[in-house]
Request: fold
Amino acid sequence: MFLENTEELAQNKLLLLYIINESSIPLTNNEITEFILEKNYMNYFFTQQYLSELVSSGFVDYRKQDDSDKNVYILLEKGKATLSYFQDRIPEKVKEE
Reply:
């Protein structure tokens, strides 16, 4: 089994918050997963686990988009506050991508 340290775990969750926040449109699970895998930031299973944990912890919401049948991730206030406080822990190279 893959073991990650606490700092890497936190950085990966912050990365997901950052992606959700910076997107000009709400993203689906597939869109986030494809981006993460394409950039080789983390594997599929960690991505799904972290997204689920972010939802259950109240950092993001996963809900049906108003004008379509898609479910999308929406950054909640708790997620915005966390991201603004810890955003400096995301490498600049990653932010540029």
User: Anything to note?
Assistant: Strands lie at 60-64, 71-75. The first strand starts at residue 60 and ends at 64.
